[in-house]
Sequence to fold (881 residues):
Amino acid sequence: MTNSIADIAKADCLLVIGSNTTENHPVIALKVKEAVRRGAKLIVADPRHIELVDWAYLWLRQKPGTDLALINGLLHVIVKEELYDKEFIAQRTEGFEEVKLAVEDYTPEKVAEVTGVPAEDIVKAARIYAAGPRSSILYAMGITQHITGTANVIALANLAMACGHIGKEGSGVNPLRGQNNVQGACDMGGLPNVLPGYQPVTDAGVRRKFARAWGVPELPKDAGLTLMEMMRAAEEGRLKGMYIMGENPVLTDPDASHVEKALQGLDFLVVQDIFLTETARLADVVLPGASFAEKEGTFTNTERRVQLVHKAVEPPGEARPDWQILRELMERLGCPSPYSSPEDIMAEISRVTPSYAGITYGRLEEKGLQWPVPAADHPGTPILHREKFTRGRGLFQAVHYLPPAEEPDEEYPFLFTTGRLLYHYHTVLSRKARGLEEICSEPVVEINPQDAEGLGIQDGQTVEIVSRRGKVRVKAWITTRVPRKVVFMSFHFWEAAANLLTVPALDPVAKIPEYKVCAVKLEKVTA
Amino acid sequence: MVTLTIDGRQVAVPEGTTILEAARRLDIRIPTLCYHPLLRPLGYCRLCLVAVEGAGKPVTACNTPVAEGMVVHTSTPEIEEWRKGIIEMLLSQHPADCLTCEKAGDCDLQDCAYQAGVKGPAWKAEVASLPVLRDNPFIVRDYNKCIVCGRCVRVCLEVQGNAALELVGRGIETKAGTVDPAGLKEAGCVFCGNCLQVCPVGALTERAGEGRGREWELKKVRSICSYCGVGCNLTLYVKDGKVVKVKGYENPEVNNGWLCVKGRFGFDYIHSPDRLTKPLIREGARGSGNFREATWEEALDLVARELREIKESHGPDVLGFLCSAKCTNEENYLLQKLARGVMGTNNVDHCARL
Fold:
């Protein structure tokens, strides 16, 4: 997030797009509601009738996969009505003229045709967002899990910069991250192209610095493979060994049957986890790790706040904290790793990671610290881009709407979209929590009543959902939460794994799969 | 700023401050039950009555704003009698089961009685005994213990925005309850448990913690939620090596103590019998799920040997490493260091996109 969680309540306008906040980030949803109670205007852009719609001043019900047309449509209105912030654009940004031209075609009428959102609502939303005076954008994977995921985010950044709604309180472009340390895993260089602190592997100076710190002669200079690329490489025999720590790609990756096949073909697979997951079952060696309650360390949340976790209980049996397992392995592979605690590791992290440079455990205890924390006496950074952007001037980039990789057709007439539910999380943890499993124990597919009627499907009946890649059987929930011709399913349940159906089409930049749109057909299952 | 005098001491506070807040700045303690700093003060319980010079009768400190020149007395013999009377009245309808109550030791009613020197009810009111409700996996509702402070109703309305709860019944029989008498789920409850977090007495308690330890036996450990990316601050309540319940920790920058159903009630996977407890080495075909238990020495030696051999025969880039969005920063740092610095490949990723 460019801004902070506490900051959300200070906004005058909130544009929530591609985020089912009350179910996926419930405590952030409380801040959204607080803002609405204070009088903020909430614009919700979501194909489904999610709970926040009931709190919204305006609901834009775009067809899944048309977000980019919608966002460019908003900017079109802002340009046409000259609602943009001329001073901010002149002083802080570059490239606006190009984007101004690029959005010229996105008239409310044309965008209405593509997205299904009435033209007057597009105009209204654009005016409210531009007026602010403090407008904030919240988004999540409803925006990013598309082949235009990166472009969608760029379009949101264009919108925020055009109106000057960034770099100040109650504003910003705020991605809501889905996992408790997904931010931290990225910060720590858990990505193929960057070392910790987003320092590019392609930068010789950066590589030299890390090589020196780690006592190795050199570091690899080309960006590595992303997760999806690794799976493809494994399937083609180009990847021979994998080490997977605390991930379950067999259920979470698109086109899951291919992932399983890819992992089956490896020469050697190590899985380090706390449960024998679907992925761990394929491993040669399974190493038992520790849960968050069984170790010390830090997590970094969606607002870049680094926070401490403390050991409350012992790991079960012979299971060990994951850092200890890695330390032992590194020692065996000839890398001296004299860490006696996670605090020692953080000391090394802060030496090599400028944005974590001022972070020590002693400073984190009470409220944590928001990076960048460049020095030991720096208070942390609740709001990014206050004076200038990371690159200096904010760069407008023209981006264009592209239809999803696979759209419904005659054979597969329904648009299939996926997400999470309140009572579950991903594929493992919540399903091992008794209460959550008791209250939400089986998967359902959301089907619009009119579609259900056409197919002769009753509420609670089992249906078979078939895509070009696989099929699952699941109970129908007949509900107006979904629009006609759209069906929604969560991906939590191995019993009906949504990712057997999803399409492995990727965003060209971020390599994120298009989980939010593929084509399926529905068949009633007669017992 | 507004200047006033409380118990003979002057204090200047911003306009709109309540008498209670002003008194707390001076560390003057006014007892409260229905008041909660994160909820709208309503003056229900009347325990915070104070005398204001010139006012005809005592006022509730929690929702009376200060005024210039106001002179407040927080403790007069008359007020102390009032307060004792209120506590006695609450106790007259309250089960005398502090010996076994889950809330004992963390109960605001106990604290108020202790501080006011009230040893028990002066009389016992005739109230019908209500069934203890366990209609869901998470929350036990024992409305016999409800003191009608309305905190649960307010948190559901004002914070969660759900309005699943309301005060039901009339007169002495009034209790908190659900808007749909059928139960919590039917009333639209999403089981955030924030009602339970603010309940001052034992009316709302965690099912998971039932019979698992008294307040003073529980070790409290600060932590961060293991589910989504909000990073809600938690307190884990631990006894005999087990987490028995979770409460929200009030970090005002993040969650202010509020949690969702997963963070508050979804922790027991930690102690699942399905947890891996020993290193395993595959036996038989891949995917058959057949493993044998191994020692750490054997398992780690095998992993090191295989990784080294694959690298030596095919080069580093035939190896791939997946970090974890569930593991700590320190662990992710080490894994990418292992991949890049030790094995020599940038094939490092995790499920950030999934």
